[in-house]
Specification:
The structure is a single chain. By secondary structure, the protein is mainly α. The protein contains 24 helices and 12 strands. The chain has helices at about 5-15, 15-20, 40-60, 65-70, 85-90, 100-120, 130-155, 175-190, 205-220, 225-230, 250-265, 330-335, 345, 360-370, 375-380, 430, 445, 455-470, 470-480, 490-500, 510-515, 520-525, 545-555, 560-565, and strands at about 240, 250, 310-315, 335-340, 350, 380, 405, 415, 420-425, 450-455, 530, 535-540. The strands form 6 sheets. It has a two-stranded antiparallel ribbon. The protein has a two-stranded antiparallel ribbon with strand order 3-10. A hairpin with a 5-residue loop joins strand 8 and strand 9. The longest helix has 26 residues, at about 130-155. The termini are far apart. The model is unreliable at about 1-35 (pLDDT under 50).
């Protein structure tokens, strides 16, 4: 019978975050009078423990891969204030403090351990075959998703597939990504063909995630796995990958899964692109000049099901800043408009820390390539179009630009109080879901509870076009945006379509890396117009500049020093992070 490490004992041993992936107090495997998983209810509770890792990471969004993938890409700068050095460091591909993202590392390994525990114990459960397949598929999906983020952020991370204690080591990229792809293939192959709308992942989400992981690994590692190969400007994707069970996954097999998702999943494009984003909610839409009078309706109004959302993080009113902060959408807070201004100056967008100002080079590229694309204004707010926006947020705003992204931001709402006076609430959710039941009264910080969508159906259509090198998926997406179809496929057309359609959704960073265009794309941020403490300035290079830092690291960030120190030589620090030249001290 598998043994679980006692939390206190493990802490005393000083085993660190890698072996702490087994430090989970809930025992889902070993038979005890208190806890032996045998029923469907037990399986649901075990899965809930795995999904809980999503909100755990949301408690510290600034350390997560989704956050990093926004700020590190060429579409967003770092932003924040003079003390928000972590934001700027992520943008500049530099390090701030010894354990800059250690919490994310530890949290994700906790999720992996919970998935491992369920997979080890599931055979003991009295489940129907279809239910067992669903449970196993969900656990494998989540384990693969956690590893996808860790491997994307840090490169060769320890591969832990058991709850047994083990010394950390770094597998080859082929072994790590082979396991990720195998988990997703197995999940896609075995889960019942039933679309889920209850927050759980389904077969089709696994197919979509398989496509995402396949495209990243086969593109990023197509030339090899050393630094020169990873930073090469040659795009030469693999067409097959050896898996740990001795089988081979081919490009054609992945296409088959993506085709199944497109043809049979029941997911669909929302007819109007703007209805995907929370600023079209019923409490705000008719007061926002951009949206009023156009018959728009947010797809998630009153907790409705979004037909395009395939995998999302859900939030609720129970967020407390001290304890359950991860129950709120902290990304909306971080990407909100900085400055503590009167809400009338930023309406309909709520306020926050000012992370990820939109890079002007994105707006310029977009305007030049697709001048009539409605998605640009649907995605980017020019603050010059707001009546009285004040630059300089709290007088310390770094890398501020004229642009905020609209997709992930907090959204406010207007209402008239009992005296007939127009008022603003920091978040529209306060009006939509009622004033009762909130755990915390500071709604600016904990009141954002709209979904964070991680995979949506439009992404699958674009993956289908990329894999099959045809225009079908591209043109379905373009039609929704009111754009003319393109006549023939090209990689450049596909790259542009993904950039415009999926802007600010956390996929651009891995896209430019896998296409081997990252260094050139990132360098376009240099000398872009910004504001420093409210005054006009330029986005200046640090530590040699964006391209130099990318070529030194291939976009893999620093493994937390605590993990390296406690690994007994099992972990080697990533290239580009071993001397003072990688440190960020300030703007």
């Amino acid at each position: 019978m598998k043994k679980f490490i006692n939390i206190l004992a493990a802490a005393l041993l000083g085993l660190g975050g890698v072996t702490s992936c087994t430090l989970d107090a809930v025992n889902y495997v070993e038979k005890t009078p208190e806890n032996f998983p045998v029923t469907s209810s037990d399986a649901s509770q075990a899965l809930a423990g795995i999904y809980q890792n999503l909100s755990l990471v949301c408690a510290n969004p600034q350390m997560s891969f989704f956050y990093l993938s926004m700020l590190a890409s060429d579409d967003n700068l770092g932003g924040g204030g003079t003390n928000d050095k972590l934001m700027q460091a992520m943008d500049l591909l530099l390090n701030y403090q010894t354990d800059m993202t250690h919490q994310f590392w530890s949290d994700r390994y906790q999720g992996i351990n919970r998935a491992n525990a369920l997979l080890e114990g599931v055979e003991n459960m009295e489940l129907e075959e279809s239910e067992r397949n669903q449970v196993v598929g969900e656990a494998k999906f989540m384990r693969a998703f956690f590893y996808y983020e860790l491997a994307s952020q840090y490169g060769r991370v320890p591969l832990v597939l058991s709850t047994e204690e083990a010394e950390p080591s770094q597998p080859a990229a082929a072994a790590l990504w082979g396991q990720i792809l195998m988990d997703l293939r197995d999940a896609a192959a075995t889960m019942p063909a039933v679309r889920k709308t209850d927050g759980h992942v389904d077969k089709y989400a696994a197919e979509a995630m398989l496509g995402r992981a396949w495209l990243f690994y086969t593109g990023m590692y197509g030339n090899g796995d050393d630094l020169a190969a990873l930073t090469s400007t040659t795009y030469n994707p693999l067409s097959e990958v050896a898996l740990p069970d001795g089988t081979t996954l081919t490009k054609n097999e992945v296409i088959g899964y993506i085709d199944d998702c497109v043809d049979n999943s029941g997911y669909s494009l929302v007819p109007d692109y703007r209805n995907l984003w929370a600023y079209t909610n019923r409490c705000t839409v008719e007061d926002y000049n951009y949206t009023k009078g156009q018959g728009l309706k947010w797809v998630e109004d009153d907790a409705a099901v979004n037909p395009e959302s395939m995998f999302a993080i859900k939030f609720n009113k129970l967020a407390s800043w001290q304890t359950t902060i991860g129950y709120a959408n902290g990304y909306a807070l971080h990407f909100g408009m900085r400055g503590g201004q009167d809400y009338s100056k930023t309406f309909p967008f709520g306020q926050g820390w000012g992370a990820g100002p939109v890079a002007p080079n994105l707006v310029n590229d977009w305007s030049s390539a697709e001048s009539d694309d409605m998605r640009r204004e649907a995605s980017v707010q020019n603050v010059k179009d707001l009546p009285a926006y004040t630059y300089g947020g709290w007088a310390d705003f770094i890398q501020e630009t004229d642009y905020y992204e609209k997709k992930q931001s907090s959204v406010s709402a207007q209402y008239t109080d009992e005296s007939g006076t127009l008022q603003y609430t920091p978040v529209f959710e306060y009006l939509m879901y009622g004033e009762n039941g909130w755990q915390n009264d500071n709604l600016m910080q904990t009141g954002n509870i709209h979904d964070l969508v991680l995979i949506r159906f439009a992404d699958v259509l674009l993956m289908q076009s990329e894999l099959k090198e045809d225009v079908s998926g591209i043109n379905r997406v373009r039609e929704r945006a009111g754009l003319d179809p393109i006549g023939s496929y090209s990689l450049e057309a596909l790259q542009n379509e993904r950039r415009w359609e999926l802007a600010f959704e956390g996929v651009r960073w891995n896209d430019i890396r896998r296409w081997h265009i990252a260094a050139a794309a990132l360098e376009k941020q240099t000398n872009q117009p910004v504001y420093y403490l409210g005054s006009s300035a330029k986005n200046t290079p640090h530590a040699g500049g964006y391209a130099a830092r990318y070529n030194a690291t291939a976009g893999f960030f620093k493994i937390p020093e605590t993990e390296v120190s406690l690994s007994n030589g099992g972990l080697v620090q990533n290239e580009g992070w071993t001397d003072a030249s990688s440190e960020y001290s300030g703007w």
